[in-house]
Amino acid sequence: MNRILTPNDSFWSVLFRYAGGFLGGLIILCVSGTGAQARETMPQQERAPQADEIRELKIGFFSDALQLTPEQSQRFWPVYNEYWSARRELGQKRHAAHRAIREGRDAERQFEIVLGVMDAERKLMADYMAKFRQILPADKAVRVFVTDEDFKNFLIRKVTRKAQPETRK
């Protein structure tokens, strides 16, 4: 998709063309969990105005996709919130390394940092897969990460539809 940008390209179309996957991940990182506990984890001024809406969408999306019972939901969300908190920290490290790479700073060191973050992300997923398996039956636990990806794609489609101008006939 090598297309030259024109003045008519909207900010959103350019953003989604070049950073759609990253943006989707970033949007999901804004979503940290449920209820008052989740609201307290991020000060009001740091949250995006849509964070509560996204959080509610995510809860419904996961509850439907995983068919969580009330008991499973009560046990699942605190562990999932821990998982996303750890993912957010790793994402910040990856983002800082990517920024340093773009700025041309110490490529060899940044290479080591990026590989370290990738290893940490793999370990984190393995650790939390085991934790989810202790809470949920295998058929639900194995779908947590797939549901994460599905939710990210759902958000990207939702935002993309809003950003596209309606065509009139």
Would you write up a description of this structure?
With 169 residues, this protein is an all-alpha fold. It has one domain. It has seven helices and no strands. Helix 1 runs antiparallel to helix 7 and helix 3 packs across helix 7. It is flat, with a radius of gyration of 18 Å.
Briefly summarize what is shown.
By secondary structure, the protein is an all-alpha fold. The protein has helices at about 10-30, 35-40, 50-65, 70-100, 105-135, 140, 145-165.
Break the fold down into its secondary structure elements and pairings.
Elements: H1 11-30, H2 35-41, H3 51-66, H4 70-102, H5 107-135, H6 138-141, H7 144-163
Helix pairs in contact: 1-7, 3-7, 4-5
Give average pLDDT, whole number: 77
How is the main sheet built? none
Secondary-structure element pattern, one letter each = HHHHHHH
How many domains, as an integer?
A: 1
Radius of gyration (Å): 18 Å
Ranges where pLDDT stays below 50 over 5 or more residues in a row are 1-44
What is the tally of beta strands?
0
Structural class: mainly alpha
Through-space gap between termini = 28 Å
Write down the oligomeric state.
Answer: single chain
What is the overall number of helices? 7
